[in-house]
Design a protein that fits this description.
Family (chain C): Belongs to the ABC transporter superfamily.
Protein name (chain C): Dipeptide transport ATP-binding protein DppD
Helix content of chain B: 55-70%
CATH topology of the largest domain in chain C: Rossmann fold
Structural class of chain B: mainly alpha
Helix content of chain C: 25-40%
Shape of chain C: globular
CATH topology of chain B: MetI-like fold
CATH superfamily of the largest domain in chain C: P-loop containing nucleotide triphosphate hydrolases
Largest interface: A-B, 43 and 40 residues
Chains: A mainly alpha, B mainly alpha, C alpha/beta
Shape of chain B: flat
Structural class of chain C: alpha/beta
Keywords (chain C): ATP-binding, Cell membrane, Membrane, Nucleotide-binding, Transport
Largest sheet of chain B: none
Pfam family, one (chain C): oligo_HPY
CATH architecture of the largest domain in chain C: 3-Layer(aba) Sandwich
CATH class of chain B: Mainly Alpha
Oligomer: heterotrimer
Membrane topology (chain C): Peripheral membrane protein
CATH architecture of chain B: Orthogonal Bundle
Chain lengths: 309, 317, 335
């Protein structure tokens, strides 16, 4: 188990390094970037940038300073709003995004699993058919498109839900729904197919032959095994919710990290772009790492890989 | 249990004596019926055609492609004709899908948009296919050290958050049709490469096994003809799923302002435009592009699912 | 001898894509207390379906027809509700299934899987239940039961896993154990050990065993009585001696002739030509007619009646009829 964790940790560090380096290269490759010392920003800003990013030093030195800033988690001030540092914006925006993302994830997981389990138990029945049709639609409609359609219907036509900002619980409904539908559909489909396969396994027959109650059989025997593939995709789902949140926050004018990120893209506010990209990447990669660990804990074959050797 | 044609006999005495003679054998009763074997692809097509949903998806796709090619030609209005008097008209006899804020006909715009969105989708899939085949083919064929190194690289690339990288690239390269395709394919090929490599390894195994047996008559070519259909399956499925993913990504970029630029308009761009208009009640400007994006993705997904089921050798009867 | 299980005219059909399959077509047999009854037959003859029907473990959605009676200690349990069956399964009648590699849940410790059987059927404190688990593991020959209880199935070998499955079947002291091809997936040497274990358990606890198998060699070692099945019907039942030395039914004889023995001379292996009949549309009469070297006209028209060669030896074959003696005179064959 320890070996497994170490391997995953090493992979995580490598990936992190790759993406931060990639970001660095790209930022310096952009024509017209302040890093390239072209004259499209004011003197004062240029001076600041020079000082902050050591632009007069050779590239590899800049790179080292860059790495240092990542480790220390200090990305400096925003170009467009010099009074704020990137860290300020992260501090304000991230909790909101986290709330939105986590809610969507939890909703998706619970409803997805429930839907998948029932569809599998009533295989080929009405529930199964409806659930799977819903699931295909869910993965087909992009979350931002769904968001627009939800706004159209609920906020504009029916006027029952608010379309913007993040000030009350009712404001959470539409954005969370838009973000959660796609992962929910994916989880439902995966749970269902995994469950169906598990239900045909021999150990399910053994469980029945032991005279156990059906509820117990499903929860204790079937679900444990069926949910393993679902755990493995949690990482990717978190990633898609995270990237989805960029656009969702923009559409719903939610003051989260995504909104700052999108604005910075449009404004070419490079420190912010860089800072948020690195931050997002770190967050994602850690999430993936945690999911891997969780899977290692749940699957006894990995947990005890070395123990009995 | 009474089988068919069982005579209604209760006691042994009811049975005529003359039945106690040896039975003449009919050879056919001894052998089970052998099913005629169908060619692999015909079997796949047969199974796919049974899947109504997948067939619907296929039909929708064919329709969309036809409309993308011919739509702008049959549209009663020109796509570029601006009209300041006809701004933001709801759907009508002259403008089947309404008009946008510059008075352009939405119907023909939709099919021009189709061209762009579908183009992005298919190009991305094709390019990723080629890169994937080359990379995965080499890795699988060479095996050993080369394979190990190449797979390590893939593992790292796989761990990168795809859309983040795409966004970064778009910021660097600037928005536009060409740059979008480049950005999408630069890390998108990884999935295909993995699959191709897996399939190549499979083929290698078969040849090895076959070669180590002594089958005088079977040549490797015949075996490849038989095995190749099996291995193409996952590759085809992967391609069917790459297209909607690319269309999704392009629409996503459009919503971030990183999509194709004017005058080109993909569905994503049109939807983004339309979004700003819904508060004014001009639903058609959002609805049509949004609907067609969803419809396209739905069709591809459903077709991809169907293909996956049809190609699954375990289900072959 | 006391009859502990009596199956009468069991009939089972399934609905499938291809139509209705008549898997079991009127099977009757009995199991006496403390004995081992082997049900023998080739794949697809319906022996597994029969055993699963006894415990009502068939996949409910596919079953089109399930009729007849299964009397366990006098009560027809085929009429039992699911709830009633659950009380019996695992505690009074247990089943050991075929593949020990897949029969255990890989994500639960074996101790857990054993405990749940006990706790489901008996009201015990945790410590008492654990002690029962330890005892039963000891009985089936798993060393260091206290430690190994906490281990997972993948940490055991195939033979050990089968012992664990046997332990699961035994732990509540059932009256009957149904063993469905318990050693097919195991090495021959392990096979012998497992059957030693069965015999030991039977000696010590007096449990009655139904053994389902297609392996006649196994049957010779272990069975007290044997029932031979073909295409959904029983064709012959008898004691071990009666079947091995005095088989009457051509199919039984065919089976015995096709089993290789060490003391055989070359060329003696005689396979039975042909394949079993289509169970979607079974032909009338005796199912073995098409492959039987001694088939008569009557065989393809009327199902053979039951004839008793002795109190324990039953045959379902028209050759038993008086008039059959004259049918093969010209062939000079022995009847």
């Amino acid at each position: 188990m320890a070996r497994y964790i170490l391997k995953r940790l090493a992979a995580m560090v490598v990936t992190l390094w790759v993406i931060t380096t990639l970001t660095f290269i790209l930022m310096h490759a952009i024509p017209g970037s302040p890093f390239n010392q072209e004259r499209n920003t004011s003197e004062a800003v240029q001076q600041n940038l020079k000082a902050q990013y050591h632009l007069d030093k050779p590239m590899y030195v800049q790179y080292l300073y860059y790495l240092k800033s990542i480790v220390l988690f200090d990305f400096g001030p925003s170009i467009k709003q010099p009074s704020q540092t990137v860290n300020d914006m992260l501090g304000r925006g991230f909790p909101v995004s986290l709330e939105l993302g986590m809610t969507a994830l939890i909703v998706a997981i619970f409803s997805g699993i429930l839907l998948g389990v029932f569809a599998a138990l009533k295989h080929n029945g009405v529930i199964d058919y409806l659930a799977m049709t819903f699931a295909v639609l869910g993965i087909s409609i992009p979350n931002f498109i769904l968001a627009t359609l939800l706004i159209q219907e609920f906020a504009v036509n029916l006027k029952i839900l608010p379309a913007a900002t993040w000030t009350s619980p009712s404001h959470m409904i539409l954005p969370t729904a838009a973000l959660a539908v796609s992962p929910m559909a994916i989880i439902a489909r995966l749970t269902r197919s995994s469950m169906l396969e598990v239900l045909t396994q021999d150990y399910m027959k053994t469980a029945r032959a032991k005279g156990l109650s059906p509820v117990k059989i499903v929860i204790k025997h079937a679900l444990r095994n069926a949910l393993m593939p679902v755990v493995t995709i949690l990482g990717t789902l978190a990633a898609s919710i995270l990237t989805g949140s960029f656009v969702i926050e923009k559409i719903f004018a939610i003051p989260g990290m995504g909104k700052y990120f999108v604005e910075s893209i449009n404004n070419r506010d490079y420190p912010v772009i860089m800072g948020t990209t690195v931050f997002y990447s770190i967050f994602l990669i850690i999430m993936l790492f945690l999911v891997d660990i969780a899977y290692g804990i749940l699957d006894p074959r990995i947990k005890l890989h070395k123990k009995e050797q | 249990m009474q089988a068919a044609n069982q005579e209604k006999i209760r006691t042994a005495s009811e049975i005529p004596d003359e039945w106690f003679v040896p039975k003449k054998k009919d050879g056919h009763m001894q052998e089970a019926v052998v099913r005629p074997s169908i060619s692999y692809w015909r079997d796949v097509w047969y199974r796919l055609s049974k899947n109504k949903l997948a067939m619907l998806g296929l039909a929708v796709l064919i329709f969309l492609i036809i409309m993308a090619i011919f739509g702008p030609m049959i549209a009663p209005q020109s796509v570029t004709k601006l009209s300041l008097t006809n701004q933001n008209l709801p759907p009508s006899k002259e403008h089947w899908f309404g008009t946008d804020q510059l008075g352009r006909d939405m119907f023909s715009r939709t099919w021009y948009g189709a061209r762009i969105s579908l183009f992005v989708g298919f190009m991305a899939a094709i390019i990723e296919f080629f890169i994937g085949i080359i990379y995965g083919g080499i890795a699988g064929y060479k095996g050993g050290r080369t394979d190990q190194i190449m797979m390590r690289i893939i593992e790292v690339l796989y761990g990168l958050p795809y859309l983040l990288v795409v966004i970064l690239l778009m910021v660097v390269m600037g928005p536009g049709l060409g740059t979008i395709i480049v950005a999408l394919t630069v890390t998108g090929w990884v999935g295909m490469a993995r699959i191709v490599r897996g399939q190549v390894l499979q083929i290698k195994n078969y040849e090895f096994v076959m070669a180590s047996r002594t089958f005088g008559t079977k040549t490797p070519r015949i075996i490849r003809k038989h095995l190749l259909p099996n291995t193409m399956g996952p590759i085809i499925v992967q391609m069917t799923l790459t297209v909607p993913s690319a269309i999704f990504s392009e629409a996503f970029l459009s919503f971030l302002g990183l999509g194709v630029q004017a005058p080109h308009a993909s569905w994503g761009v049109m939807a983004d435009d339309g979004l700003s208009a819904i508060l004014t009640g001009q639903w058609w400007r959002l609805f049509f592009p949004a609907f067609f994006i969803s419809l396209t993705m739905f069709a591809f997904n459903v077709l991809g699912d169907g293909l996956q089921d049809a190609l699954d050798p375990k289900l072959r009867r | 001898m006391e009859k502990i299980l009596e199956v009468e005219d069991l009939q089972v059909s399934f609905s499938t894509h291809g139509g209705t399959v008549q898997a079991v077509r009127g099977v009757s047999f009995q199991l006496n207390k403390g004995e081992t009854l082997a049900i023998v037959g080739e794949s697809g003859c319906g022996k597994s379906v029969t055993s699963q029907s006894i415990m009502q473990l068939l996949p409910a959605s596919n079953v089109k027809r399930l009729s007849g009676s299964v009397r366990f200690k006098g009560t027809d349990i085929l009429k039992y509700s699911e709830k009633q069956m659950r009380k019996i399964r695992g505690s009074e009648i247990s089943m050991i299934s075929q593949d020990p590699m897949t029969g255990l849940n890989p994500t639960l410790t074996i101790g857990n899987q054993l405990l749940e059987v006990v706790k489901e059927h008996q009201k015990l404190f945790h410590e008492e239940a654990v002690q029962m688990v330890v005892d039963i593991l000891h009985t089936v020959g798993i060393p260091s039961p206290h430690e190994r209880m906490k281990q997972y199935p993948h940490q055991f070998s195939g033979g050990m896993r089968q012992r664990i499955m046997i332990a699961m079947a035994l732990i509540c002291n059932p009256e009957i154990i149904i063993a469905d091809e318990p050693t097919t997936a195991l090495d021959v040497t392990i096979q012998a050990q497992i059957f030693e274990l069965f015999k030991k358990i039977q000696r010590e606890t007096g449990v009655s065993i139904i053994l389902i198998t297609h392996d006649l060699g196994v049957v010779a070692q272990v069975a007290d009585r044997i029932a031979v099945m073909y295409a959904g019907k029983i064709v012959e039942t008898g004691t071990r001696e009666e079947i091995f030395y005095n088989a009457e039914h051509p199919y039984t004889r065919g089976l015995l002739n096709s089993v290789p023995r060490l003391d055989m001379e070359e060329g003696e292996l005689i396979p039975i030509p042909g394949t079993p009949p289509d169970l979607f549309a079974p032909p009338p009469g005796c199912p073995f007619t098409a492959r039987c070297p001694m088939a008569m006209e009557v065989c393809s028209r009327v199902e053979p009646f039951h004839s008793k060669k002795s109190a324990s030896h039953s045959v379902y074959c028209w050759l038993q009829d008086e008039r059959a003696k004259y049918a093969f005179l010209t062939m000079g064959g022995r009847l």
